[in-house]
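Regression test case RT-17, inverse folding.

Input:
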């Protein structure tokens, strides 16, 4: 039997520094430590304290989940809890999420976790899911997979090439920022999905464009939606830190009128 040696915390900290494109001098100045001390930490000549690991993690903007991993590699207990969303301690968080979702009606809004798994949604999200294969809607639902899969939402997206480039670019940046192998795998999977439209290599605005819209075919009409992401401002729990609300707003008056009339019709049905 062989035992895989745990990677040293100094090596991991160096990788995070390099990922953030910082020199030892830049990080040492920002963290208020000597370059010599930082070098010793990265090479394993000096064992960092728990406080030092947390200070460097903060300066490197390391996600909470990975901060716990750094602490474990340094021989310390994790500092940040990773609670289940259904625990009593997160009751206020659940209430806030549901209030935002309900208040966003009649426009679609949904909550996702770090892996883009669907956590919760409002009733208007059904509009986005029409025509998707049933197996893609079996929990856990990955909303990025659902949006770009040829049996998912993709056939209904009028500007699939443009929207796909936006989604893949965003996921690529997230995977690079978090160093999450699961996100890298998801990115590779989504890149292999077919697309019959040209994809811009660089996201540049067209005439009068200020954001990339989601142009969705719905029957004989085309809906145009803008998306906005909302996160908790001061999370100290891994689960809460990894939640995000994806809200969609009408990008034109005809889309707004349709969504409102659709909601009113559902109320009186």
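Golden output:
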């Amino acid at each position: 039997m062989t035992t895989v040696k745990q990677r040293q915390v100094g090596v991991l900290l160096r990788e995070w520094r390099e990922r953030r494109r910082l020199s030892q001098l830049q990080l040492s100045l920002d963290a208020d430590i000597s370059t010599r001390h930082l070098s010793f930490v990265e090479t394993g000549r000096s064992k960092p304290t728990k406080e030092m690991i947390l200070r460097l993690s903060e300066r490197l903007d390391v996600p909470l989940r990975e901060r716990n991993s750094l602490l474990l590699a340094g021989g310390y207990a994790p500092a940040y809890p990773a609670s289940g969303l259904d625990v009593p301690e997160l009751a206020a968080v659940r209430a806030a999420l549901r209030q935002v979702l309900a208040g966003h009606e009649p426009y679609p809004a949904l909550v996702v976790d770090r892996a883009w798994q669907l956590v919760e949604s409002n009733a208007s999200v059904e509009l986005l899911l029409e025509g998707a294969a049933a197996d893609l809607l079996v929990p856990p639902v990955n909303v990025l997979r659902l949006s770009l899969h040829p049996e998912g939402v993709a056939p209904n997206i009028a500007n699939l090439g443009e929207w796909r480039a936006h989604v893949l670019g965003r996921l690529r940046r997230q995977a690079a920022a978090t160093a999450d192998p699961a996100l890298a795998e998801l990115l590779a999977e989504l890149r292999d999905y077919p697309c019959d439209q040209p994809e811009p290599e660089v996201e540049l605005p067209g005439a009068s464009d200020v954001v990339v819209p989601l142009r969705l075919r719905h029957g004989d009409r085309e809906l145009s939606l803008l998306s906005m992401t909302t996160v908790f401002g001061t999370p100290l729990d891994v689960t809460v830190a990894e939640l995000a609300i994806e809200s969609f707003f009408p990008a034109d008056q005809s889309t707004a009128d349709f969504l409102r009339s659709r909601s009113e019709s559902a109320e009186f049905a």
